[in-house]
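Record type: monomer structure entry
Structure origin: computed from sequence
Chain ID: A
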Amino acid sequence: MPMISAPAAARLAGRPLAFARDRLAALLAFPADEAWPEPRQEAAPYAVVDGGIAVVPVLGPLVARNDWLSALFGAIAYGDLVGAVAQAFADQDVRAVVLEVDSPGGEVAGLFDAVGTLRDLKERYDKPLHAVANEAALSAAYAVASAADRLIVTRTAEVGSIGVVAVHVDESGADKQAGLAWTYVFAGDRKVDGNEHQPLSDRARAAIQADVDRLHAELCAIVAANRGTTPEAIRSTEAAIYRGELAVAAGLADGVGTLESVVGDVVADLDRSQPALTTLVAPILRRSFAMAEDKQPKEKGPGQTDPVPQTPVSEPVEPKPGTPPQTPTPPTPAGDPAPPPLPPAHDPAERYRAEYAEIADVAAQGARLGVSVDAADAMRKGIKPDALRRTVLDTLAERSAAADVIAAAPAPGKPTAESPIVKRARERAAARS
Protein backbone atom coordinates (compact mmCIF):
# COMPACT_ATOMS: atom_id res chain seq x y z
CA MET A 1 0.00 0.00 0.00
CA PRO A 2 1.55 3.34 -0.93
CA MET A 3 2.57 5.68 1.83
CA ILE A 4 0.88 9.05 2.11
CA SER A 5 3.03 11.75 0.57
CA ALA A 6 4.32 13.97 3.36
CA PRO A 7 4.38 17.14 1.22
CA ALA A 8 0.83 16.60 -0.01
CA ALA A 9 -0.46 15.77 3.47
CA ALA A 10 1.22 18.86 4.93
CA ARG A 11 -0.23 21.06 2.18
CA LEU A 12 -3.81 19.78 2.21
CA ALA A 13 -4.51 18.20 5.58
CA GLY A 14 -6.30 20.36 8.11
CA ARG A 15 -7.69 22.74 5.46
CA PRO A 16 -11.33 22.86 4.37
CA LEU A 17 -11.48 21.59 0.80
CA ALA A 18 -14.20 21.65 -1.85
CA PHE A 19 -12.75 18.59 -3.54
CA ALA A 20 -14.14 15.36 -4.97
CA ARG A 21 -13.39 12.61 -2.46
CA ASP A 22 -11.80 10.04 -4.78
CA ARG A 23 -9.56 12.67 -6.41
CA LEU A 24 -8.48 13.92 -3.00
CA ALA A 25 -7.57 10.41 -1.88
CA ALA A 26 -5.46 9.91 -5.00
CA LEU A 27 -3.61 13.17 -4.42
CA LEU A 28 -2.93 12.49 -0.75
CA ALA A 29 -1.79 8.92 -1.47
CA PHE A 30 0.83 9.90 -4.07
CA PRO A 31 3.76 7.58 -3.20
CA ALA A 32 6.44 9.41 -1.28
CA ASP A 33 9.23 7.32 -2.87
CA GLU A 34 8.01 7.83 -6.44
CA ALA A 35 9.48 10.45 -8.74
CA TRP A 36 7.45 13.67 -8.78
CA PRO A 37 5.95 14.64 -12.13
CA GLU A 38 7.63 17.28 -14.21
CA PRO A 39 6.15 20.76 -13.77
CA ARG A 40 3.51 21.41 -16.42
CA GLN A 41 4.30 24.06 -18.98
CA GLU A 42 2.47 27.29 -18.26
CA ALA A 43 -0.29 27.73 -20.83
CA ALA A 44 -1.66 30.95 -22.28
CA PRO A 45 -4.40 32.48 -20.10
CA TYR A 46 -6.94 32.14 -22.92
CA ALA A 47 -7.24 31.46 -26.64
CA VAL A 48 -9.46 33.37 -29.08
CA VAL A 49 -11.14 31.08 -31.59
CA ASP A 50 -13.13 31.92 -34.74
CA GLY A 51 -16.04 34.23 -34.07
CA GLY A 52 -14.28 36.21 -31.33
CA ILE A 53 -14.85 33.66 -28.53
CA ALA A 54 -12.20 33.44 -25.80
CA VAL A 55 -11.74 29.96 -24.29
CA VAL A 56 -10.29 30.09 -20.77
CA PRO A 57 -8.94 26.72 -19.53
CA VAL A 58 -9.84 25.68 -15.97
CA LEU A 59 -7.85 22.46 -15.84
CA GLY A 60 -6.57 20.80 -12.67
CA PRO A 61 -6.99 21.45 -8.94
CA LEU A 62 -7.85 24.97 -7.74
CA VAL A 63 -5.74 26.58 -5.01
CA ALA A 64 -5.61 29.88 -3.16
CA ARG A 65 -2.17 30.77 -4.55
CA ASN A 66 0.60 29.30 -6.65
CA ASP A 67 3.21 27.06 -4.98
CA TRP A 68 4.80 23.66 -5.56
CA LEU A 69 1.36 22.02 -5.88
CA SER A 70 0.46 24.15 -8.89
CA ALA A 71 3.89 23.55 -10.44
CA LEU A 72 3.75 19.75 -10.02
CA PHE A 73 0.11 18.93 -10.54
CA GLY A 74 -0.97 21.79 -12.80
CA ALA A 75 -3.13 23.41 -10.13
CA ILE A 76 -4.62 26.82 -10.90
CA ALA A 77 -4.59 29.73 -8.48
CA TYR A 78 -7.94 31.51 -8.17
CA GLY A 79 -6.20 34.83 -8.80
CA ASP A 80 -4.76 33.55 -12.10
CA LEU A 81 -8.17 32.23 -13.18
CA VAL A 82 -9.94 35.49 -12.41
CA GLY A 83 -7.14 37.46 -14.09
CA ALA A 84 -7.44 35.40 -17.27
CA VAL A 85 -11.21 35.94 -17.44
CA ALA A 86 -10.79 39.68 -16.80
CA GLN A 87 -8.14 39.93 -19.52
CA ALA A 88 -10.37 38.08 -21.97
CA PHE A 89 -13.38 40.29 -21.21
CA ALA A 90 -11.27 43.43 -21.71
CA ASP A 91 -9.96 42.18 -25.07
CA GLN A 92 -11.62 44.24 -27.84
CA ASP A 93 -11.52 41.22 -30.17
CA VAL A 94 -13.45 39.04 -27.71
CA ARG A 95 -17.25 38.93 -27.94
CA ALA A 96 -17.86 36.23 -25.30
CA VAL A 97 -15.94 34.00 -22.88
CA VAL A 98 -16.24 30.22 -22.48
CA LEU A 99 -14.73 28.38 -19.50
CA GLU A 100 -13.44 24.90 -20.37
CA VAL A 101 -13.60 23.12 -17.01
CA ASP A 102 -11.91 19.83 -16.16
CA SER A 103 -11.20 20.06 -12.46
CA PRO A 104 -11.87 17.94 -9.34
CA GLY A 105 -12.23 21.07 -7.20
CA GLY A 106 -9.80 22.58 -4.74
CA GLU A 107 -9.37 24.71 -1.67
CA VAL A 108 -12.20 26.67 -0.13
CA ALA A 109 -9.80 29.51 0.67
CA GLY A 110 -10.24 32.11 -2.07
CA LEU A 111 -13.13 30.27 -3.78
CA PHE A 112 -16.06 32.45 -2.72
CA ASP A 113 -14.32 35.70 -3.61
CA ALA A 114 -13.27 34.30 -6.99
CA VAL A 115 -16.85 33.29 -7.88
CA GLY A 116 -18.13 36.72 -6.82
CA THR A 117 -15.51 38.45 -8.96
CA LEU A 118 -16.49 36.38 -12.00
CA ARG A 119 -20.08 37.56 -11.61
CA ASP A 120 -18.93 41.18 -11.27
CA LEU A 121 -16.76 40.94 -14.39
CA LYS A 122 -19.64 39.51 -16.40
CA GLU A 123 -21.86 42.44 -15.46
CA ARG A 124 -19.15 45.08 -15.87
CA TYR A 125 -18.21 44.11 -19.42
CA ASP A 126 -21.72 42.96 -20.41
CA LYS A 127 -20.38 40.03 -22.41
CA PRO A 128 -21.72 36.46 -22.28
CA LEU A 129 -19.96 33.94 -20.01
CA HIS A 130 -20.51 30.24 -20.71
CA ALA A 131 -18.97 27.09 -19.19
CA VAL A 132 -18.40 23.57 -20.48
CA ALA A 133 -17.73 20.65 -18.12
CA ASN A 134 -15.15 18.79 -20.20
CA GLU A 135 -14.88 16.30 -18.42
CA ALA A 136 -15.37 17.35 -14.76
CA ALA A 137 -16.67 20.33 -12.84
CA LEU A 138 -16.72 19.09 -9.27
CA SER A 139 -17.05 20.83 -5.92
CA ALA A 140 -15.08 24.11 -6.06
CA ALA A 141 -14.83 23.81 -9.86
CA TYR A 142 -18.61 23.45 -10.07
CA ALA A 143 -19.01 26.64 -8.03
CA VAL A 144 -16.79 28.42 -10.55
CA ALA A 145 -18.74 27.00 -13.51
CA SER A 146 -22.07 27.95 -11.90
CA ALA A 147 -21.19 31.65 -12.35
CA ALA A 148 -21.69 31.24 -16.12
CA ASP A 149 -24.87 32.22 -17.98
CA ARG A 150 -25.13 28.63 -19.22
CA LEU A 151 -23.39 25.43 -18.12
CA ILE A 152 -23.10 22.61 -20.66
CA VAL A 153 -21.76 19.11 -19.93
CA THR A 154 -20.32 16.55 -22.31
CA ARG A 155 -22.02 13.15 -22.46
CA THR A 156 -19.57 11.61 -19.99
CA ALA A 157 -18.75 14.68 -17.91
CA GLU A 158 -19.25 14.71 -14.14
CA VAL A 159 -20.64 17.66 -12.17
CA GLY A 160 -21.73 18.15 -8.58
CA SER A 161 -19.96 16.98 -5.43
CA ILE A 162 -21.13 20.25 -3.88
CA GLY A 163 -19.70 19.70 -0.42
CA VAL A 164 -16.83 20.55 1.90
CA VAL A 165 -14.34 18.14 3.45
CA ALA A 166 -11.50 18.52 5.93
CA VAL A 167 -8.85 15.79 6.30
CA HIS A 168 -7.03 14.85 9.49
CA VAL A 169 -4.08 12.50 9.07
CA ASP A 170 -3.22 10.66 12.30
CA GLU A 171 0.49 9.85 12.09
CA SER A 172 0.86 8.76 15.73
CA GLY A 173 1.00 5.04 14.78
CA ALA A 174 3.66 5.67 12.13
CA ASP A 175 5.60 7.81 14.62
CA LYS A 176 5.59 4.95 17.13
CA GLN A 177 6.85 2.45 14.56
CA ALA A 178 9.59 4.88 13.58
CA GLY A 179 10.57 5.40 17.19
CA LEU A 180 9.46 9.03 17.23
CA ALA A 181 7.67 10.79 20.09
CA TRP A 182 6.30 14.30 19.56
CA THR A 183 5.93 16.63 22.52
CA TYR A 184 4.22 20.02 22.18
CA VAL A 185 4.93 22.80 24.65
CA PHE A 186 2.22 25.38 24.14
CA ALA A 187 0.04 28.09 25.64
CA GLY A 188 -3.66 28.24 24.86
CA ASP A 189 -5.78 25.16 25.51
CA ARG A 190 -6.78 24.67 21.85
CA LYS A 191 -3.41 25.54 20.32
CA VAL A 192 -2.53 22.00 19.20
CA ASP A 193 -6.04 20.63 18.66
CA GLY A 194 -6.15 18.46 15.54
CA ASN A 195 -2.38 18.06 15.11
CA GLU A 196 -1.35 15.06 13.04
CA HIS A 197 0.86 13.44 15.68
CA GLN A 198 -2.01 12.73 18.09
CA PRO A 199 -5.37 11.02 17.62
CA LEU A 200 -8.16 13.49 16.87
CA SER A 201 -9.97 14.49 20.06
CA ASP A 202 -13.76 14.87 20.29
CA ARG A 203 -13.39 18.60 20.91
CA ALA A 204 -11.16 19.06 17.86
CA ARG A 205 -13.51 16.99 15.71
CA ALA A 206 -16.52 19.07 16.79
CA ALA A 207 -14.72 22.32 15.99
CA ILE A 208 -13.67 21.10 12.53
CA GLN A 209 -17.21 19.82 11.83
CA ALA A 210 -18.76 23.18 12.77
CA ASP A 211 -16.38 25.00 10.42
CA VAL A 212 -17.13 22.57 7.58
CA ASP A 213 -20.89 23.00 8.11
CA ARG A 214 -20.66 26.80 7.91
CA LEU A 215 -18.60 26.69 4.74
CA HIS A 216 -20.97 24.15 3.18
CA ALA A 217 -23.95 26.41 3.87
CA GLU A 218 -22.22 29.33 2.15
CA LEU A 219 -21.17 27.16 -0.80
CA CYS A 220 -24.77 25.96 -1.30
CA ALA A 221 -26.06 29.54 -1.10
CA ILE A 222 -23.59 30.79 -3.73
CA VAL A 223 -24.31 27.93 -6.15
CA ALA A 224 -28.07 28.31 -5.64
CA ALA A 225 -27.94 32.04 -6.43
CA ASN A 226 -25.93 31.37 -9.59
CA ARG A 227 -28.24 28.59 -10.77
CA GLY A 228 -31.47 30.35 -9.87
CA THR A 229 -32.62 27.81 -7.29
CA THR A 230 -32.70 27.48 -3.48
CA PRO A 231 -29.91 26.50 -1.08
CA GLU A 232 -32.15 23.66 0.13
CA ALA A 233 -32.31 22.24 -3.41
CA ILE A 234 -28.53 22.30 -3.70
CA ARG A 235 -28.08 20.82 -0.22
CA SER A 236 -30.51 18.03 -1.10
CA THR A 237 -28.04 16.69 -3.69
CA GLU A 238 -25.94 15.57 -0.68
CA ALA A 239 -22.75 16.23 -2.66
CA ALA A 240 -23.61 13.51 -5.17
CA ILE A 241 -21.95 13.42 -8.59
CA TYR A 242 -24.09 13.45 -11.76
CA ARG A 243 -22.96 12.51 -15.25
CA GLY A 244 -24.19 13.83 -18.62
CA GLU A 245 -27.98 13.85 -18.99
CA LEU A 246 -28.44 13.09 -15.28
CA ALA A 247 -26.78 16.42 -14.49
CA VAL A 248 -29.33 18.20 -16.68
CA ALA A 249 -32.22 16.30 -15.04
CA ALA A 250 -30.89 17.30 -11.59
CA GLY A 251 -30.85 20.98 -12.59
CA LEU A 252 -27.07 21.26 -12.30
CA ALA A 253 -26.52 21.78 -16.06
CA ASP A 254 -28.40 23.40 -18.94
CA GLY A 255 -27.68 20.89 -21.68
CA VAL A 256 -25.39 18.28 -23.18
CA GLY A 257 -22.83 19.24 -25.80
CA THR A 258 -19.17 19.72 -26.56
CA LEU A 259 -16.78 22.65 -26.38
CA GLU A 260 -17.03 23.05 -30.15
CA SER A 261 -20.83 23.01 -30.16
CA VAL A 262 -20.98 25.57 -27.35
CA VAL A 263 -18.62 27.92 -29.19
CA GLY A 264 -20.71 27.54 -32.34
CA ASP A 265 -23.96 28.24 -30.45
CA VAL A 266 -22.51 31.35 -28.80
CA VAL A 267 -21.31 32.72 -32.16
CA ALA A 268 -24.72 32.04 -33.72
CA ASP A 269 -26.50 33.81 -30.85
CA LEU A 270 -24.25 36.85 -31.17
CA ASP A 271 -24.63 36.98 -34.95
CA ARG A 272 -28.42 36.78 -34.66
CA SER A 273 -28.49 39.73 -32.30
CA GLN A 274 -26.34 41.93 -34.57
CA PRO A 275 -28.89 42.46 -37.43
CA ALA A 276 -31.52 43.58 -34.94
CA LEU A 277 -29.06 46.13 -33.61
CA THR A 278 -28.36 47.45 -37.13
CA THR A 279 -32.05 47.71 -37.96
CA LEU A 280 -32.73 49.65 -34.78
CA VAL A 281 -29.83 52.09 -34.94
CA ALA A 282 -29.03 52.63 -38.62
CA PRO A 283 -32.09 54.74 -39.60
CA ILE A 284 -31.52 57.09 -36.67
CA LEU A 285 -27.83 57.36 -37.53
CA ARG A 286 -28.61 58.23 -41.14
CA ARG A 287 -31.02 60.94 -40.01
CA SER A 288 -28.43 62.34 -37.61
CA PHE A 289 -25.76 62.44 -40.32
CA ALA A 290 -28.14 64.17 -42.76
CA MET A 291 -28.99 66.81 -40.18
CA ALA A 292 -25.30 67.40 -39.62
CA GLU A 293 -24.71 67.82 -43.36
CA ASP A 294 -27.59 70.31 -43.72
CA LYS A 295 -25.89 72.61 -41.23
CA GLN A 296 -22.77 72.93 -43.42
CA PRO A 297 -22.70 76.08 -45.68
CA LYS A 298 -22.66 75.35 -49.41
CA GLU A 299 -20.72 77.39 -51.98
CA LYS A 300 -22.82 79.43 -54.41
CA GLY A 301 -21.97 79.65 -58.10
CA PRO A 302 -21.70 82.90 -60.08
CA GLY A 303 -24.88 84.93 -59.91
CA GLN A 304 -26.45 82.67 -57.28
CA THR A 305 -28.05 84.12 -54.21
CA ASP A 306 -29.37 82.63 -51.02
CA PRO A 307 -32.77 81.04 -51.55
CA VAL A 308 -35.75 82.86 -50.12
CA PRO A 309 -37.40 80.80 -47.38
CA GLN A 310 -40.78 79.53 -48.50
CA THR A 311 -43.69 79.76 -46.10
CA PRO A 312 -46.79 77.65 -46.53
CA VAL A 313 -49.88 79.52 -47.74
CA SER A 314 -53.49 78.78 -46.99
CA GLU A 315 -54.93 80.31 -50.23
CA PRO A 316 -55.49 77.97 -53.17
CA VAL A 317 -52.89 78.14 -55.92
CA GLU A 318 -54.08 79.01 -59.46
CA PRO A 319 -53.96 75.77 -61.39
CA LYS A 320 -52.39 75.46 -64.82
CA PRO A 321 -54.70 75.18 -67.82
CA GLY A 322 -55.96 71.62 -68.27
CA THR A 323 -55.22 70.53 -64.71
CA PRO A 324 -57.86 70.06 -62.04
CA PRO A 325 -57.78 72.41 -59.09
CA GLN A 326 -55.96 71.10 -56.06
CA THR A 327 -56.97 71.51 -52.47
CA PRO A 328 -54.33 73.33 -50.41
CA THR A 329 -52.47 71.14 -47.92
CA PRO A 330 -52.42 72.48 -44.37
CA PRO A 331 -48.95 73.22 -43.00
CA THR A 332 -47.28 70.40 -41.10
CA PRO A 333 -45.91 71.34 -37.68
CA ALA A 334 -42.15 71.13 -37.39
CA GLY A 335 -40.56 68.25 -35.54
CA ASP A 336 -41.38 64.56 -35.24
CA PRO A 337 -44.84 63.63 -33.99
CA ALA A 338 -44.93 62.82 -30.32
CA PRO A 339 -44.96 59.05 -29.68
CA PRO A 340 -48.05 57.64 -28.02
CA PRO A 341 -47.71 57.47 -24.25
CA LEU A 342 -46.74 54.13 -22.81
CA PRO A 343 -49.23 52.47 -20.47
CA PRO A 344 -48.21 53.01 -16.86
CA ALA A 345 -46.70 50.03 -15.05
CA HIS A 346 -48.77 48.84 -12.12
CA ASP A 347 -45.77 47.47 -10.24
CA PRO A 348 -43.01 50.07 -9.51
CA ALA A 349 -40.44 47.30 -9.07
CA GLU A 350 -41.37 45.85 -12.45
CA ARG A 351 -41.11 49.31 -14.04
CA TYR A 352 -37.60 49.80 -12.62
CA ARG A 353 -36.55 46.35 -13.79
CA ALA A 354 -37.82 47.06 -17.28
CA GLU A 355 -36.06 50.43 -17.34
CA TYR A 356 -32.78 48.91 -16.16
CA ALA A 357 -33.10 46.13 -18.74
CA GLU A 358 -33.53 48.75 -21.47
CA ILE A 359 -30.53 50.73 -20.19
CA ALA A 360 -28.46 47.52 -20.10
CA ASP A 361 -29.53 46.81 -23.69
CA VAL A 362 -28.44 50.30 -24.78
CA ALA A 363 -25.09 49.77 -23.01
CA ALA A 364 -24.63 46.44 -24.80
CA GLN A 365 -25.42 48.02 -28.18
CA GLY A 366 -23.04 50.88 -27.47
CA ALA A 367 -20.26 48.46 -26.51
CA ARG A 368 -20.66 46.60 -29.83
CA LEU A 369 -20.38 49.92 -31.65
CA GLY A 370 -17.33 51.00 -29.65
CA VAL A 371 -19.07 53.43 -27.28
CA SER A 372 -18.63 52.77 -23.55
CA VAL A 373 -21.75 53.22 -21.41
CA ASP A 374 -21.87 52.73 -17.62
CA ALA A 375 -25.36 51.30 -17.06
CA ALA A 376 -25.11 51.35 -13.28
CA ASP A 377 -24.03 55.01 -13.27
CA ALA A 378 -26.90 55.91 -15.59
CA MET A 379 -29.39 54.30 -13.21
CA ARG A 380 -27.90 56.11 -10.22
CA LYS A 381 -28.16 59.47 -12.02
CA GLY A 382 -31.71 58.79 -13.22
CA ILE A 383 -30.79 58.98 -16.93
CA LYS A 384 -33.61 57.63 -19.05
CA PRO A 385 -33.01 55.02 -21.78
CA ASP A 386 -34.02 57.41 -24.60
CA ALA A 387 -31.53 60.03 -23.41
CA LEU A 388 -28.82 57.40 -23.08
CA ARG A 389 -29.55 56.07 -26.57
CA ARG A 390 -29.39 59.62 -27.99
CA THR A 391 -25.99 60.10 -26.33
CA VAL A 392 -24.68 56.94 -28.03
CA LEU A 393 -26.03 58.02 -31.40
CA ASP A 394 -24.64 61.56 -31.06
CA THR A 395 -21.23 60.14 -30.20
CA LEU A 396 -21.31 57.92 -33.27
CA ALA A 397 -22.48 60.84 -35.42
CA GLU A 398 -19.60 63.01 -34.19
CA ARG A 399 -17.13 60.23 -34.95
CA SER A 400 -18.54 59.83 -38.45
CA ALA A 401 -18.45 63.58 -39.14
CA ALA A 402 -14.86 63.76 -37.91
CA ALA A 403 -13.92 60.85 -40.15
CA ASP A 404 -15.54 62.58 -43.17
CA VAL A 405 -13.58 65.79 -42.48
CA ILE A 406 -10.30 63.90 -42.18
CA ALA A 407 -10.99 61.91 -45.34
CA ALA A 408 -11.77 65.10 -47.30
CA ALA A 409 -8.80 67.13 -46.09
CA PRO A 410 -6.37 68.06 -48.92
CA ALA A 411 -2.98 66.39 -48.97
CA PRO A 412 -0.14 68.60 -47.65
CA GLY A 413 1.71 70.53 -50.33
CA LYS A 414 -0.91 70.07 -53.06
CA PRO A 415 -2.70 73.23 -54.39
CA THR A 416 -6.43 73.28 -53.89
CA ALA A 417 -8.89 74.05 -56.69
CA GLU A 418 -9.59 77.79 -57.23
CA SER A 419 -12.93 78.99 -55.95
CA PRO A 420 -15.46 79.62 -58.78
CA ILE A 421 -16.26 83.04 -57.27
CA VAL A 422 -12.61 84.13 -57.29
CA LYS A 423 -12.13 82.78 -60.80
CA ARG A 424 -15.16 84.74 -62.11
CA ALA A 425 -14.00 87.98 -60.42
CA ARG A 426 -10.61 87.70 -62.13
CA GLU A 427 -12.23 87.15 -65.53
CA ARG A 428 -14.43 90.26 -65.11
CA ALA A 429 -11.43 92.37 -64.03
CA ALA A 430 -9.46 91.22 -67.08
CA ALA A 431 -12.37 92.05 -69.41
CA ARG A 432 -12.71 95.62 -68.02
CA SER A 433 -9.03 96.26 -68.46
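Annotation 1: The mean pLDDT is 77.
Annotation 2: Residues 349-398 form one domain.
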